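Problem: given the chain below (274 residues), write out its structure.
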Amino acid sequence: MVIRIPDTFTVEQSEKYLASIRLEPGGLSFFCCHAATGEDFFSARVQFEQPQSYVSALKECFFDNECLSWKYKQLCLLATETPYTLVPETYYEKERRDALFAFNFPEASATMQILENKLADGTVLLYALPEEVYSFCARSFAAPEFLHLAALLLEQWKRLSETSLYKQLFVQVCGQHIELACFAPQGRLRLANSFEVRSTRDILYYILYVWKQEGLDQLNDRLFLSGSPVRCAELRQALSLYLRHVSPVPLPAEAYLRREEWADAPLDIIYLFS
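Solution.
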């Protein structure tokens, strides 16, 4: 479970860096880059051994890697592939947070910690982490900020759609999981959801189903894809039979400047570090 970091990256330098730890099924990914320049980017993926519990493996990984306990300019703990729900801030009451989340996910037990991310459009995103995982992270990492992957994506996708005259559907493919959001013109969110998928066929089904349900136009409205280049190329080829405008998600300017360095970074990490 050793995370390999550059020889030049030391505890004396860490507070100049942005860091993110993606809490993923069966493991975690560690990302880091210089806060001022966006350079010196590096990443590492750790696969947890089975049949350990997730929290036991997380603790072992933390104590095996000194860099995880260092102080950073910003440290984000990013929840992935965990359910979320959106609540308009007008109707949101923090003391009812657990009940609001349980309304959509009644299976959420008392052992889950319900967390919130406030979005710029006046929406609150609620999601859950296992209580043991949350407690360990909160007390062990240095000043961590807890974020859901969907919060990062929705904020950026909204900005991209604010100047559009057409409806837009954004999809990020992450292994056996997709994040999906549909926006009306001027960045008005219509739908956001995530789905488990086992094949390209599953992804095509969800995209075209949402496209039909939201009444998007095959000739004028836009579909944007992100994820594995091979998978996205396959999807674009199949979807081009049905939809005129299928494109990669536009990246921030910083990503184009550092395309080679950030080539393998997930879209949410690019957004976080840009």
